[in-house]
Design a protein that fits this description.
Layout (H helix, E strand, L loop, with lengths): L4 E12 L2 E12 L3 E5 L6 H8 L7 E6 L2 E2 L7 H6 E5 L10 H6 L3 H11 L7 H10 L15 H15 L3 E5 L7 H17 L3 E5 L3 H7 L2 E6 L2 E7 L5 H8 L6
Parallel strand pairs: 3-8, 3-9, 6-7, 7-8
Antiparallel strand pairs: 1-2, 1-4, 4-5, 9-10
Helix pairs in contact: 5-6, 6-7
Bound molecules: adenosine-5'-triphosphate (ATP) and magnesium ion.
Magnesium ion (MG) binds next to helix 1.
Length: about 250
């Protein structure tokens, strides 16, 4: 399979007030990969995902997204077709009906006027229905989003992502607030959609078990550095013990 490289990190470094959050990281990710990002709290997982999403600027180094430096992308339609983000808190607007949150996936494509208008007269309702069918929530179209369970809300967030249809999906602890059954549900659905759509997924996780079960490659960070970057089947229990050890080995 000759898939193209979709993300390339070249020596990326990020500091916050002089404190290193990412230290000279280099890796490349091919289209279609399912990558779990693991590591202890404070390792730099969120910072790395936010850097790829162009939410935080790098201190040095370069990120190349689909052959173009990230800094060359303008925020807007093109970028939203490239990268989509899914978060632990789902980022949904609770008081709105599910359909409006799903159609918010079109926000950058439609522009503000059409998106605001769609709050009154839902545009392209069919798109929303199709996306909701794929996450098994078609019967919730008109329900108020805040009344849904955590797992259902995460599925609404996935339907929104289906509508946005970006090439790369970045998920920061997408199942952290869900009970194990819902978490399995959400990860099964997310990885299925990503595979069907030939998208690329990078998800940070606190659960090694989920990383092993659903992802083909595991990148681990420790103190802002790459600790290991391996196909899932090569990740041993010894490596994981070392990764999560509180004290750094000298
Ligand atoms: N906005 C910020 N201002 C200052 N320091 C920050 C900021 N964001 C992150 N950091 C620091 O950068 C380091 C990496 O944080 P980051 O949030 O990326 O870790 P993480 O791996 O996502 O941790 P967790 O598993 O707890 O979510 C930490 O030392 C953190 O304190
Ligand atoms: Mg984090």
């Amino acid at each position: 399979m000759s898939s193209k490289t979709i993300i390339e990190a070249k020596n990326i470094t990020k500091q916050f007030d002089g404190k290193i959050a990412l230290s000279s990281l280099s890796f490349s990710i091919k289209q279609g990969e399912l990558v779990a990002l693991i590591g202890p709290s404070g390792a730099g997982k969120t910072t790395l995902l936010n850097s790829i999403a162009a939410l935080v600027p790098l201190h040095s180094g370069e990120l190349i997204i689909d052959n173009l430096p990230l800094t060359k992308y303008k925020k807007g339609k093109l970028f939203s077709k490239k990268i989509g983000v899914i978060r632990q808190q789902f980022d949904l607007i609770g008081p709105l009906a599910v359909i409006h949150n799903v159609l918010a996936g079109k926000l950058s494509e439609w522009g503000l006027f059409k998106s605001l208008f769609s709050l009154l007269v839902p545009q392209e309702k069919e798109i929303a229905i199709k996306a909701l069918q794929r996450v098994g929530l078609e019967d919730k179209l008109l329900e108020i989003t805040a009344t849904l369970s955590g797992g259902e809300q995460q599925r609404v967030a996935m339907a929104r992502l289906l509508v946005q249809n970006p090439e790369i999906i970045l998920a920061d602890e997408p199942v952290a607030s869900l009970d194990p059954a819902r978490a399995d549900d959400v990860l099964t659905m997310l990885t299925k959609i990503v595979t069907e759509e030939k998208q690329t997924l990078i998800a940070s996780l606190h659960s090694v078990e989920y990383a092993r079960k659903y992802f083909t490659r595991i990148i681990s960070l420790k103190n802002g550095k790459l600790f290991f970057d391996l196909p899932t089947e090569q990740v041993t229990d010894e490596l994981l013990t070392e990764l999560y050890q509180l004290k750094e080995l000298v």
